Amino acid sequence: MYYYKKMFRVFAAIAITYTLLIEIIFVGLYWIPSRREFAENVETTARSLSEYTDSRLKSPLEIGIILNASDYTSKYASNTLTNYERLRFIKFIQNIHGLTATQNFGLAVTKYDDNYVIMNNETGGIPYFRSIFRLSEKRLDAAIQYFKENPRVLSQFFIADLSGKNKTYVIARQEWFGRAAPIYTFTSYYESQLFDLNTLTKGSFALFFNNELVASSGMLEPDAVKKLADRGFQKSDYIQYDTSSSVPGYRYVYLTEPQAILTPTLIMIVACGLVAMTVSLWLMALVTRRMYTPIEGVLKSTGEAFTSGDEFAHIQSTIRSLSSNVETMSQSLEQFKLSAENKFLHELLTGLVPLEEIQERLLGFPKLNAEGPFVIVLIHYRETGQYTGDFLHGMTYNVKQRLNALLDSQFADSRLQRTIDLNFETQAVILQWDAKQQLAEKLRNSIIGIEPESGLEISAVIGTPCDTLTSIATSYRKAVKMAEMLGYSGMHAKVIQADDVKTADKNTVDYPLQQEQTLINAVIHGKTAIWQSSLEELIAANRQKRGNLLPTLALMLDVTVNRMIDGTDLSAPEAFGTHHADDLQLRACRSFEELHQKALHAFGRLEASFAKAQDKSNSSLAEKMLSYIHEHYRSEISLYDLADYLNLSRNYVSTLFKNAVGRNFKDYIGEYRFRQACAIIQDNPDLRLKDVADQVGCNTEILTRLFTRHAGMLPSDYQQMCKKNEKADE
C-alpha cells in the first residue's frame, strides 16, 4: 500500500493545490468585477439622479429666459398692459408652464407689490397664491424681503410644506429684465417631481444650495443627512458620490451603504470550492485505483453514449459543438436586442414613450448611451412609374439595403447611427453628428450614387439638431413638418435642411395646419371671438409679409370652408341659403380687406348653421336622457351610466343635461324619486318606508333627505298625513 499511499498523497496534493487556485481565481473573478460593477452602479445612479433633479432646477432659468423674450413682460413690469394684453400675457404664462420639459406642481409670476399673481392655470391675490403653493405668510414675506435686501441674489430654494405624503419645494427667482423693479417667479415641485424616486430605491440623495442642505430624499431623514454633512461625509460609513449642477450654487451628494463583503454569491463560491475539494479528493482516490475512472467520468458528462473511437476526439468534438451552440445563442440574443432597440427608437420618435419614462428605458440599451448632438434624417422613397407590383417592392427593399450600407460606411465615425423603418416608403436615420454641411454633402453623394440605377426617387430631410435622445422626438416632428411643407414650397433638392425650408417658406402662404384646425374647431363649436381673432391674425400676417400671395390664401380659405361643409351633414345651400354661390367665391377677392370681409361672412354663416344643427341634436339627446332616467330610476344609476348609455363624455353630458333641464343630474333624479315616492305612499299609505325607498332606487336615509328637502317633513309624517286623508275620504 506504500505506492498507493504515496500516489494518493501526490494526487491529493495536486487536487488540493489546483482546487485552492481555482477557488482563488473564481473569488477574484467575482469580487473584482463585482466591486467595479457596484461602483459603476453607484456612479450611474448618482448621475441619473443628478441629471433628473438638474433638469428641474434648470426649468426656472428657462422660464426666465422665455419671459425675457416677451414684450408683454416688460409692459407688465411697467404697468402698461392693456386688458387684452393682460389676457394674452396670462395665456402666455400658462403656455410657458405647458412648454417646459419637466413636470412641476405650479408656476407663478408676480410683482408682489400689486397683490396680483399669475399662476399656471389661474390668477389671484397673494393670499390665494400662498394657499395654492402651500406657503405661509411669514415664509413668503421673508423670501421677498431677502430679495429686496440682496438685489444681486437671483434665486432662493426652500421647503413650502412638509405635511402629507409628498413634500413641496419652491424655487423663487427675482428677474430684473432691465427694469428698476423685479418680477418674481415661483416654481414648485412635489418631492416625487424634484427627485427621481423610481431610481432612488437605495441610499439617499441630497441637494445643497450655497453649501447648505436644502432638500433630501431616500432612506436617511434630512436631519441625519445634515448631521453627516456637518461632521463630514468622509468620516461616515456611507459611500459618498458628489456631482455638480449646471445651475450655479447647487450641488448633489448621493449616499449609499458600502458593498457587503460576505455576499450570498461569495458564500456560494466558497461553499462550491469546499465541495469541489471534497469531490476532487474522492476522485483522486478513485484515480489511484482505476486510472480510467476520470476519463470515463468526462465521457459520461458529455451526455452521449460512447462505446468506441477516440475518447479525446469525442470530448473535443463535444466542446466544439457546445461552443458553436453558445455562439449561435449569442447571435440570436444580439439580434433580439437590436430588434428591441429599434422598437424603442420607433416608439420614441413617434411620441409613444412618456417623457418621464424615456431616461429609464434608455438605461436598458447601453449602446444608445452616446453624447450629442443628434440629428434625425428622414429618407423618402418614391416610385417613378418605371417599375410596378412585386418587382417594385423587391427593388425598394434592395435599394434600402444598399443605401443603408453606404450610409454605414459614410458615417462610420459617428458614435451612434440607427436606421428605423417607419413604413415601406420612409426611413428615419438617427445620427450623432455635428458637421451639418458635411452631413448634407455625404447624404447627397450617397443618394446620387444609388438613385439613377434604382428606378426610385430618393430624397432626404435633415431635422434640427438636439442635445440628447430624450428630445429626438422633437427633431423628428420638425423633420416631418419640413417634409410636409415641401409639397407646396416648390423645392426639389435631394437633401433639404431647415435653413432651406425657411428660405422657401418666404414664398409660400403662412397658413399652418394647426391654425386651420383652430379656425375650424372654433367655428364648429361657436367660439366666435377665437375664430375671428385667428382669421384676423392670418390675414394680417400674409398681408404684411406675403402681399403677392392673395390668390393662394383665398384658395386655401375656400378649401377650408368646403372642408367644413364636407365634414358635416350640411350642404352649401343649407349653410349659406340662396346666395351660397356668392359666399363661396373667396377666390374672386381683389384685396386682403375684401377677403377678410367675405371670410368673416362665410364663417359666420357656417357658425350659425352649425349652432342650429347642434340645438336639434341637443334636444334629441335631452329626450333620450330623461327617458333613460324615467326607465331606470329604480336602480342605482349615476351620471357615468347615463354617459355610457349615450356614448358621450361625462363632462359633456353633465353640461348638456343642465342646459336642457335647468338643473343638474343629481337634483333632477332626486326630485323625480321624491315625486314617485309621494305617488306610491298616496296609493298605499300602509307600505313600509323601506319598501318605498327600494321601489324608487334609494335607501331610507336618502328618502328622508329627499322629503326633508322637497316637502319640509319626514316621509313618516307624509305617510301619516296620507292615512288621515284616506280616512277622511271614507
Helices and strands in order, then pairings?
Blueprint: H1 2-68, H2 71-77, H3 83-99, E1 106-110, E2 117-119, E3 123-124, H4 126-133, H5 137-149, E4 155-161, E5 168-175, E6 183-190, H6 191-194, E7 204-209, E8 212-218, H7 222-231, E9 239-244, E10 250-256, H8 264-289, H9 293-301, H10 311-349, H11 355-362, E11 374-383, H12 389-410, E12 417-421, E13 426-432, H13 436-450, E14 456-462, H14 472-489, E15 495-496, H15 498-505, H16 513-524, H17 528-545, H18 550-566, H19 572-576, H20 580-583, H21 592-632, H22 639-646, H23 650-661, H24 665-683, H25 689-695, H26 700-710, H27 715-729
Parallel strand pairs: 14-15
Antiparallel strand pairs: 1-2, 1-6, 2-3, 4-5, 5-6, 7-8, 7-10, 9-10, 11-13, 11-14, 12-13
